[in-house]
Design goal:
Structural class: alpha/beta
Shape: globular
Strand content: 15-25%
Helix content: 40-55%
Length: 275
């Protein structure tokens, strides 16, 4: 009798272990690194149209759709969380969020603190001015012009490279909309921001009579990446997923939906080889 009881206990314990092993295996299914699959928290700034913004309380935009497509390809579920621009960097650095996305330019300074995916977007800064402005290039900003920017961005850095750091004519704001409103109200002569941001605003607000100025010589090309905490094991999975989304046509569909043009996929894929 005692022997039978002992054998029964062993069999039950074995079944429990087998069940646990099955759950662990299925949890890792769908990603390449063997990391247990979980819902990832993605920090963003939902006041950065057309990349990320709120529509009836829902986070939407090019980056939002792109992030969902890449996460699906990598085998992860995600939750986009609107934390703001500066807090986004704190969230990712302190691992309060698993990753971050919001038109974040990859540069040497940021790479000292964060890891980035391979590039997924080609951008450059452009100038937004009122109709009739005498500003025609980046060099014209030197003529005692007041320039509004989103603080902590490459737009700010670009203007500082022209006017100098801590120049009193550089006004920094918490989001691009505030910077643009400052210019419209007469508090600034121009706004410098990502090309898609200023072009989208001018297109959607024809009554404001704004002009977008491109200056390829005055502003360098930039590449956006998904941002991770330094040493994140997720980077490998997302690098593979970004490349696949670019190659299989998914990226082009999302890009055309939001920007009404074809993306330069060839340049992006070539840039990825350099990283």
């Amino acid at each position: 009798m005692k022997k039978n009881i002992f054998l029964t206990i062993v069999m039950i314990f074995s079944l429990i272990l087998a069940a646990c092993g099955t759950n662990d295996a299925s949890a890792g299914e769908g990603n390449n690194s063997g990391v247990e699959k979980k819902k990832l928290k993605v920090a963003t700034e939902a006041n950065y149209a057309p990349f990320v913004y709120l529509d009836k309380g829902e986070i939407t935009g090019f980056d939002a759709d792109f992030m969902k497509a890449v996460a699906k390809e990598a085998g992860y579920d995600i939750e986009l969380v609107n934390v703001g621009w500066d807090p986004l960097f704190v969230e990712v650095k302190d691992k309060l969020s698993d990753l971050g996305i919001c038109a974040i330019t990859i540069n040497d300074e940021r790479e000292q603190t964060y890891d980035f995916s391979v590039p997924y977007y080609l951008s450059t800064n452009e100038i937004l001015v009122p109709e009739g402005s005498d500003i025609e290039s980046a060099a014209d900003l030197k003529n005692n012009k007041v320039v509004a920017v989103l603080g902590g961005t490459t737009g700010q850095e670009a203007v500082e490279s022209i006017l100098g750091k801590n120049n009193k004519n550089i006004k920094k704001f918490d989001n691009n909309n505030l910077a643009i409103l400052e210019m419209i109200s007469g508090g600034a002569d121009a706004v410098v921001a990502d090309n898609a941001v200023v072009e989208e605003y001018a297109k959607n607000n024809p009554d404001k009579k704004l002009v977008v100025i491109k200056d390829e010589e005055g502003f360098e090309k930039e590449f956006y990446g998904i941002m991770f905490p330094k040493g994140s094991v997720l980077k490998k999975d997302f690098d593979v997923a970004v490349s696949k989304v670019l190659e299989n046509g998914t990226y082009a569909k999302i890009y055309e939906q939001w920007f009404g043009a074809e993306p330069d996929v060839v340049t992006l894929l070539e840039q990825q080889k350099k990283n």
